[in-house]
Specification:
- By secondary structure, the protein is an alpha+beta fold.
- Among the domains are: 105 residues, D-maltodextrin-binding protein, MBP (Periplasmic binding protein-like II), CATH 2.40.430.10; 246 residues, MetI-like (MetI-like fold, Orthogonal Bundle), CATH 1.10.3720.
- The strands form three sheets. It has a seven-stranded mixed beta sheet, with no helix packed on it.
- A hairpin with a 5-residue loop joins strand 11 and strand 12.
């Protein structure tokens, strides 16, 4: 029996390949080659954009991928490579990139590199208004002729030879009287639509008039003229302002071209500033005060949310696990609704409910005890409101987890406890809670990390308000670190990306450290 089975399998393995398999074999190497070429082109485009390190990293990733999927020697790695590549691209790379930005002065005032800022300044110029001339384009067979005319009278003065209008060309013009016959035979002026279509080529065209050393540049849809540049590049890399001869040196400590008198040119350029952003967080008094307060509130907010959500979710799970409770299914469905409704909708609903003048919560409190709390204006009340809303959004998750964990507790433990005369509270604190909290601990750590970065709740409910009035750096009393970072990076303080990246790196380190400490402590408690 075994011999026949082996022979059958051997015969099956020797069957000739089908049409689909033969087609796959034929197309394998052409498709692989095309994919390699596409990958190399992508690497080249990244390199051409000035991202040398990014191009090298992308090349290494593509090389590893092609080696693993083409070579039979790395067959086992084919199942691991997608996950590892995704982790490197979507986790490791953004983390490293953010950390690197934290050591620079990258901001809205320092977006460009030093070379690009120099090129930008050297391109600044004014037109010499007294020598500006109008122009018109005329068809001449398959080519075009350009006619310059006096800007005031409109009289044609110069005409070009037939032009193909290819970018970067220099055209020699001659007086109209020298080509009078050709000028009379010119077609009508090109309409504005066709003139606009030639704009890019015209912007690169240089017109040379007889007896003039300075060429004419494209100044607009109707004008050519000489230009007067504002800056001159010096051999040492500095820039000289031609209007007054003042020299501006590139300062790598500030990221600006600066004169000896301290005048700075805009825009600035990106430079490495070392630990300056981190020192600013810890040593600058204007920054340190709000930062430490926001950090403390972030920890309190995350911890209180996890504690209250766990207590409420666990108690509700225990109550719903009581078999003699009527309508358990209905209660479970109603209590699950906050988790089923999208979070941003619930947050906006609560924002209306807590409205001081028109909210239902204040209407009920006013009817019962005659008060209307200023939930959004008072810092303490705003923080209490945030915790309440976040606990409302988070307790169903804990309740579902605990409901599943309760099913795993043996019923014999409760029967033995009942024989010993223990009550419900004793069962909860001696049996239920200890057996639930151990498997629940890693999930509580992840819930703490999530709430540490709960940007959506802060942005939609309070937007970090009310603000610290005594702080020079805009900061809100209900801001957590991630929303504070967002305000620094994109809103209130001039889009300081370097400082925001430093704060983001610090947030990552703090969350990772606290998560590791919590896991270590829970691991010891479980031993």
């Amino acid at each position: 029996m075994n011999a026949s089975t082996t022979a059958h399998r051997f015969a099956y393995s020797q069957l000739p390949p089908g049409p689909l398999e033969r087609s796959a074999r034929l197309l394998r190497w052409p498709l692989t080659g095309a994919a390699m070429l596409a990958s190399l082109y992508l690497v080249f485009m990244v390199y051409a954009s000035g991202q040398t390190l990014g191009a090298l990293g992308l090349l290494a990733l593509f090389a590893a991928g092609f080696y693993i999927y083409v070579s039979q020697a790395a067959f086992a790695a084919r199942y691991l490579f997608p996950g590892i590549a995704g982790m490197l691209v979507f986790i490791a790379f953004p983390l490293v990139f953010t950390a690197v930005i934290g050591f620079t002065n990258y901001s809205s005032a320092h977006l460009l590199s030093e070379e690009r800022v120099r090129d930008y300044l050297l391109e600044q110029h004014d037109a010499v208004e007294a020598q500006v001339m109008g122009y018109s384009l005329h068809a001449d067979g398959k080519s075009l002729r350009l006619v310059l005319s006096d800007a005031t009278s409109g009289e044609p003065r110069f005409i070009s030879a037939p032009l193909a209008l290819q970018g970067g060309k220099q055209a020699q013009l001659v007086p109209m009287r020298e080509l009078a016959t050709e000028a009379q035979a010119l077609a009508a002026t090109l309409p504005l639509r066709e003139l606009i279509a030639q704009r890019e080529a015209l912007s690169q065209l240089r017109l040379q008039l007889p007896g003039q050393a300075e060429p004419l540049h494209y100044l607009g849809l109707r004008e050519f003229g000489p230009i007067r540049r504002h800056w001159e590049s010096l051999p040492d890399g500095s820039l000289k302002r031609l209007a007054d001869g003042q020299v501006f040196q590139p300062k790598r400590d500030s990221g600006f071209f600066e004169s000896a008198s301290g005048e700075q040119l805009q825009p600035g350029f990106k430079v490495l500033v070392g630990s300056q952003n981190y020192a600013r967080m810890l040593l600058n008094e204007d920054f340190r005060g709000p930062f430490l307060a926001i950090f403390s509130w972030t920890v309190i907010f995350s911890l209180s949310t996890v504690v209250f959500s766990t207590v409420i979710g666990m108690l509700l799970a225990v109550l719903l696990n009581w078999e003699d409770l009527r309508f358990r299914g209905t209660y479970r469905t109603l209590l699950f609704l906050p988790y089923a409704v999208p979070g941003f909708i619930s947050i906006l609903v609560f924002k209306g409910l807590f409205n001081q003048n028109f909210g239902e919560i204040n209407a009920i409190l006013d009817a019962l005890i005659g008060v209307k709390p200023a939930w959004f204006a008072d810092p303490l009340l705003a923080k209490i409101m945030l915790v309440i809303v976040n606990v409302w959004l988070g307790y169903p998750y804990i309740m579902i987890l605990c409901s599943g964990l309760l099913k795993a507790i043996p019923a014999d433990l409760y029967e033995a406890s009942a024989l010993a005369g223990a009550g419900p509270l004793t069962n909860f604190f001696k049996i239920t809670a200890p057996l639930i909290i151990k498997p629940l601990a890693p999930l509580l750590v992840s819930a703490f990390a999530f709430n540490f970065n709960n940007f959506v709740l802060i942005a939609l409910l309070t937007d970090g308000r009310p603000d610290y009035l005594s702080s020079k750096i805009p900061a809100g009393q209900t801001d957590i670190l991630v929303s504070y970072t967002y305000r620094i990076a994109f809103r209130d303080s001039g889009t300081d990306f370097g400082l925001a990246a430093a704060i983001s790196t610090l947030i990552f380190i703090l969350v990772a450290a606290m998560s590791l400490i919590n896991l270590r402590l829970m691991k010891r408690a479980q031993q």
